[in-house]
Amino acid sequence: MDSELQKRLLATFRVETRERLETIGTSLIDLERGPSADLEQELIEAVFRETHSLKGAARSVGIVAIETVSHGLESVFSALKRREISLAPPVFDLMHASIDLIGRLLPSLEAAPIPEENEQVRALNQRLVRAAKGQYPPPPEKTALPPAEREETTIEKSAPPKTVRIATEKLDAVLQQTEGMLTAKLAAAQQVEELREVGRSLALWDNEWKKVQPVFRRLRRLRQADGIDGDQYGVLFEFLDRNHATVHGLTHRLAQITKTAELDHHHLGGMVEAVLDDVRDALMLPFASVLPILEKSVRDLARDRGKTVRLATEGASVEIDRRILEEMKDPLLHLIRKCIDHGIESPDERMRQEKPPVGTITIALTLVSGNRVEIIVADDGAGIDTELLVRTAVDAGLVAPEETERMTATERLNLAFASGLSTSPLIDDISGRGLGLAIARERTASLGGTMSVMTSVGKGTTFRISLPLTLSTFRGVIVEVAGQLFVVPTTDVQLVSRRKKEAIATVENRETIDLAGQHLSFVRLRDILGLPQPAPLAENDYVPLFVLAADAGRIAFGVDRVVGEQEVVVKGLGKQLRHVRNFSGSTVLGNGRVVPILNSRELAGSAVQAATAGTRAIVGTAERKSVLVVEDSITSRTLLKNILEGAGYRTLTAVDGVEALNLLKTDPVDLVVSDVDMPRMDGFELTSRIRESREFAALPVVLVTSLDSREDRERGIDAGANAYIVKSSFDQSNLLDVVRRLI
Amino acid sequence: MERERNNAIPDRHQTSDWDELRRRLTAAREAISREPTRAEKQSILMARAAILAQDPAGEETAADYAEVLEFRLAHELYGIETTYVSATAPLLELTPIPGTPPFLLGLINHRGQILSVIDLKKFFDLPDKGLTDLNKVIVVQNDEMEFGVLADEIAGVRQIRRNEIQPALPTLTGVREEYLLGVSRERTVLLDGRRLLADRSLVINDEE
After folding, report:
1. Class of A474-612 per CATH?
2. Where does A638-682 show beta strands of DSSP type E?
3. Does the CB of B118 have a partner CB in chain A at under 8 Å?
């Protein structure tokens, strides 16, 4: 068979089989709960059909091992159907073992089966064949456990929803494109604003016109009285009249266009929002979709630990963003492990405490508001021994013994989330390495959520997780440093504030800041991120800052400006950037601009390192010369800016001549460095305009150009440029030489 | 006018030459019934043989050619196979990420997706001479990797015969040999897209 085709077939088979296994697993768990006779027969029938289909699918792609096992399963269920055998605990174990084995075989379908696998398949098949005849040899290692608590379960039956199967990548791509459409909406708003601006300019013109109109009328009347008509002045008057009429006509048309643009913006905005909502909705999955895995894991773990545990779930129909569910699977599994390992007691122990012998783990999901859900993972076990936790933390050197005196009950309990702390005496593959809870909490935080724990000795432990419904509803504080924007997740920020410069004091070579009587470490985000050091435009008396809570205490980060807080869409850093220190991802703001998201934990770590490395002396800001860089290419613009700032100049930038002239009006500079070839207004024209103006006639202009001919050079000199640098021979030093000579 | 046209139609009918047709049919009948001479047969067969014996090199297959996107970077012409190129776009905004190596210029928003952008000049350690626009992005990708490569200008797409690609001397191009397919007859420096995309040193993965 065509290998490419076979590969595709196997991929489809894999997806299908996983789904079938999940269905079989769920039905088995339902069967184990001991349903009514009718329901039991129905479930057996359902599983029988699944195993039959599975066998057929495996045969069609030529996977003998899976075919064999599913055939065995099918024959057992066929016997159950015919009531030749009855459901007994060994049957369940055998069934679970079979679907586990098929699950293990799935990843390596392409490779030839290895001998051990064949051996496992053969052994299992023999057991299945015997089970179908009603013979259950005792399982090799463990004795059968008492069956789980029987209780009446009814399964809601509903008509199967009408669905189609779509690859998740395709849906994600659609979502991304749709989020990109927000930019179009914003651009439309911008356009409306610009049209209104033109309208305002015309209104100004109209005012001017009204001012001169009386003069104009008087003049005309005077001339008419003198009986002069049809001479040069007459022509001029007529022209002015026509002009006036034309401008009026244009004003009217502009008003109409503006109105249409406003309507378009309104419609586009509404449509984009609606589409985005629908697409986000399409990416939502009911919480029920992760329940089979959780249920299976509860069953397997409890069995393994010799405990009997029942899983109660609530809110299975609540829908959440698929990406969030995917990310939360592991943290939830981890919490369940914690509950079974450390929470639920053994049946004997529970009897002694007069608790029901079967422990209960509750996973409840509730919508708390339009865009947040709360997941509660609770057990009715022993609870967390806070004293033991504190003792372990002291032993592990995580807290100083004297510190424990001052700790509140919550702080003590929160030690459970500290990394590297485990109260479990034995270290195994599941819990006891002490990393799990810390990671689970971090994963939650990276989704914009929070996790807390409550415990009551002898009664149980409750983990409370709060999550956004979709990834798009993540809130972030936007800060600006060195002209760049960064987002800090709002949930990590304790405080946003500003303090007078005097509040910063240097203690033992480290900077601290006084915040409401408390002294916090103070660092500058600029230093932590290694950004360039231009002094601020105007020396500010206040330092804006935000405060993060870190393991080592609270840290205040100084920034240039706190821009605000808003909802942000979490995006990654692209495939090339697997992990960049201090960053957890990026987001796209409404104007299409990409802004990095800071990783609070790593940032706090970097801050501690930077503080211990000693602080840098703050360079005083002398009066600095300023340069305006006019260049349409963003890379060249940034390069020129960096060179000039590196040499100590204050630098402004513009993308073309028009923007440069506007900028000069509000912020005069000492020199202009301009590209020649630019849209709207080129460098030659910009130079001439500067020379023509009264206030900038003497402003030095340096033209940087890719045009290298004598005519161009002469054209530049004619326009009034002071220097002419050719791009092909450009280098840092000749630019700086020229600038230094001119200012 | 009307009358003229009415006249013209029967005229044309008259001249629809039945005689001519008959003459041609007779000639055809004769040609079919007549056995060609030996010499004639020989010459026909020779002509057929000559056509069949022609070198099939004339019919080149697509595999003989590499379709290459050519772009200008610091006054040099580079090329990369179009199989690795998914799009080109103008560079409008760029967000630098602090703490990344100099060759990584930053992130852009490419059709709603975050894309990192690199400067090959810096990655290849080419001499930093002159100032060029560098405002076009070529999006290169395969299943595992995707990033943007900056260029001054997109020159176009051209077919290059694979057997005309010559091995490049690194001294000639300044680019390390491992990233090169070779140099085309027109002196385009052909980059190895597969190698570039698989290159670990381009991936940024800081220690925790």
Report:
1. mainly beta
2. 650-654, 671-675
3. yes
